[in-house]
Amino acid sequence: MKQKYFLKLITITFMFMLPIGLMAQTVKGKVTDKSGGVLPYMNVLVKGTTNGTVTDDNGEFSISVKSLPITLVVSSMGFATKEVKVATTAYLTIVVADDNALEEVVVIGSRNPNRTAIDSPVPIDIVNVKELALSSPQVNLNQLLNFVAPSFTSNTQTISDGTDHIDPASLRGLGPDQVLVLINGKRRHTSSLVNVNGTFGRGSVGTDLNAIPSASIKRIEVLRDGAAAQYGSDAIAGVINIVLNESVNELSLNVTSGANFSKNANGQTGGVDGETINISANYGLPIGENGGFINFTGDFDFREDYSRMKEWEGNVFNLYNTVERFASNDGYDLTKLLDDDVSDVIQYANAAGINLNGASTKPELQTILSADNTTAELAARGLERKDFNMRVGQSKVRGGRFFANFKLPLDDNGTEIYSFAGLGSRNGNSAGFYRLPNQSRTYTPAYINGFLPEINSTITDKSVAVGIKGKIGEWNVDFSNTYGKNSFDYMIGNTFNASMGNSSPTTFDAGGFAFSQNTVNLDLSKFYEDTFQGLGVAFGAEYRLENYEIIAGETASYSQYTAAGEPITLSTQVPLTDFFGAGRPGGSQVFPGFSPSNELSRGRNSVAGYVDLDATLSEQFSLTAATRFENYSDFGSTVNFKLASIYKVSDNFRIRASFNTGFRAPSLHQLNYNATSTIFDQNGDPQEVGTFANDSRAAKLLGIPQLKEETSSSFSAGFTAKLPESNITFTLDGYVVNIDDRVVYTGQFQGPGTGTELDNLLAQANASAASFFANAIDTQSKGLDFVITHKADLGSNSRLTSDLSATLSKTEQVGDIKSSEVLKNAGLESTYFPEDSRVYLEEAVPRTKFNLTNSFTSGKFNIFLRNVYFGEVTEATTVVANQQVFSSKVVTDLSFGYKAADNLTLTIGANNLLDIYPDMADAAYGNRSSGRFDWSRRAQQFGISGRFLFARLSFNLK
């Protein structure tokens, strides 16, 4: 009730602010669909002004205007926007059509200004983000697309360092770096993070889609076909074009809050965890009289972490830890003892009642005191096994994002200035493996019960594009500059540098990295109406600058020290050891910092030119052709081409096909990334692995070939169909993509351990093994995509929209591993391209996805029901016998919406309504890591959050 009074007060106040002259004339009418059914809650706005209203329950409206003629703009979700010129006050009946995405003119895939999705010779999906944002449980862009576009895959990762904070995403099961992202048709910069831990997309660099607020987006166009000949490097799997919001005189405010209500929440005890809040606002202002605007979006994310680990089942304490406890209770630090002085160890062992069997030397004591004593020590310390759990699940996030979209027409001839920009920052918090008291990497005088180290990230993303478009003669000209930068900084907390002993801090600045890109484009196009039955000609040029940086952390974050406190630079130097003689690893535990030897700033430039033709040769047949030359300063030149055609068999049936070649230049990250990180094998055993640049001395010693570009060829064929009487559209497309020289992240090459040059290089990097980026294999991907859409008018203001879409894909290695003679002769090919790398490429994400979505609207009510089928995936391990296959699952989303007032909608619902989880890891396969991973961390189908319930308040004022 108070809300209605509030809305009335706003309306009355607004009306008093209007000039009296605006009340001079009144335009009345009603809005209906094609069958004559009235449409309530349609937005009716006087174009170019803030004067507007909403149709009532009978579909009628009344709006006061200062003078005539005017143009009314009628719009609403699910219907095509319609403009109506009004010259008199006669009663109007305005008929609007359904919003059929396939009939919408698209930006990508063709430079023909009249090309719609259904007339496109290549498959394009249109995702109406504004509509989904009202009813879908998902709010971030990666998850929204994962549940709506079957060819798209993205999931949150766990225990994977930086990849816990930026979700890898892909099209058609190919790599995250093989899909190109555009905003308003302009190339988007990639993330600064390269994925080097155990996840899908290992070794690749993707685009941080979650840096773009969903509320800033009007729609997303997904081109499911190679397009390097049109857009350049990376567009092997396809292109995602994000079209930003252009609305004006409309305030949209969404508040979404939810949490996991799951049987496995809170360490599998059940209840509620993973609370989230997302607040977004969007508003646009008209500029001038010719359709200019500026549209703003602000967005805030608050996400708590969750864990699905039940309890640690392995050893925690040995007998030496018991001795330590007795000494600590007495205020004594056993690490102060000299190497061979064991008198105090014996004293406290006797005090603890440990039977030493007469042992008096350190080797004898090491044998006895290494025995497990977990059960007794847990009881003595008042601890439980779950106190040593990790956080296996979702990282914590706090973040904010701001986007703006701007256009200012300068004349009536199409000349306009445009710009869009974004700025975002988010802080993440994730945890690594628990450092147990019985491990040498745990300095127990500081953490007597061990510790759970944390990775705190600060991810900053900024971008701006400025351009001008217009006509020179009869040519359309578009000149633009687009800049973007992504940076990732690490602050490691609740941790220790074990090799420093008591002098180690517990928080470290570990450094970070950054990537920036500046792209200048000049595009010219012209449409010849009298050539054939229409010919679009486009050509242009692009100049791009890229820069990649690694920033060093503080000294203690990366160094390993001897017992004398000297940094280790040679393999002959001995680090500080624990009681059992094991060397204590250096650097901040969980994520060693970047050292000055890692620090760098590398740049490159590329120049490209393209020609793109789109010809309608007859009423039935259209043909497009494109070719592109591109030269990179660091690896040379490439020429690619594309041919595509569509044949109109009838008004409602079309056949299409395409063939293209493509390429992907190795990213600056892959060429230059070098660092040391802690990698845990499938048994949970850690080692420090150094990633060395491809042109490093270590790479030469091992015979790692120099990086070069990936090349591809792909073919697709399919058809589109419409059944107008039944309001059904259908598309089916098959494809084959061949990629040569795919860049992968190698396995871990161990040093000989004999004081060789390689051993010294590893010691300087504080590492025991080395990995590299390399062109190791060729692959072939093939699959089938189909989409069926049905819209039904059920009468009484009721409508049902149903979409069934699916992808069936398969990626396989083709031919032998492409290694050097040095690697072959040393028998190291299985390390160069290990078995788990094959699984990551071929089977770690679902190869089959089905999506059935139903949206029912009746008056003020809306029901959204979606079922997504996720196909089987395989555990990525180096041991074939341990590769468990996880069966397919169906996840159900359901939401109910109610329009409580003209400007207010309340939505409640669930993602994963039935609380479905992937198959649990079977102990027989040896992948549970003593209870750490009851669900796979390496093969993600749809996540392990379980049921997510949410409520959303949507306020829309026009």
Automatic annotation (TrEMBL):
Residue ranges of domain TonB-dependent receptor plug in the record: 118-239
Entry similarity comment: Belongs to the TonB-dependent receptor family.
UniProt keyword terms in alphabetical order: Cell outer membrane, Membrane, Receptor, TonB box, Transmembrane, Transmembrane beta strand, Transport
Sections of the chain in a coiled coil: none
All copies of domain TonB-dependent receptor-like beta-barrel, residue ranges: 415-913
TM regions (residue ranges): none
Name this polypeptide is given: TonB-dependent receptor
Its membrane topology: Multi-pass membrane protein
Record's subcellular location: Cell outer membrane
Provenance organism: Polaribacter reichenbachii
Domain of life, per lineage: Bacteria
Gene3D superfamilies from the UniProt entry: Carboxypeptidase-like, regulatory domain (2.60.40.1120), TonB-dependent receptor, beta-barrel domain (2.40.170.20), TonB-dependent receptor, plug domain (2.170.130.10)
Gene Ontology CC annotation, any one: cell outer membrane
Annotated InterPro entries: Beta-barrel_TonB, Beta-barrel_TonB_sf, CarboxyPept-like_regulatory, Plug_dom, Plug_dom_sf, TonB-dep_rcpt-like
